[in-house]
Known about the structure:
By secondary structure, this protein is mostly helical. It is built from two helices and no strands. Residues 1-22 are annotated as: Disordered.
Amino acid sequence: MFQRKSNFPQMPTPPTGEQQAKDMMKCTNNSDVVQALDLQDRECSFNAETNICLQKLYDLLMYKRNLDNSIQDLNTIFPALIRISNELQNKSDNVKLQAYQSIN
Length: 104
């Protein structure tokens, strides 16, 4: 029956990415709380990723050091193991020879 037309202006459209980038470049005041929090969050996430990567690197270096120590120990022990193996082989041959001689 009675229709009243609204006098509200048309809703504004959100700014495009280019407009936002221009606005951010124009902004020289760092008192923008939202921007500061966003930068802090980015910095914290970057630091967290960096810390994780550094921890992984540290762990890998520790594994490498342990492997190097194990290889060095094996290289030190290997000649002794060869010598002991040869001695055992000689003793085994001597026992076989003595057993053969005692049978004959």
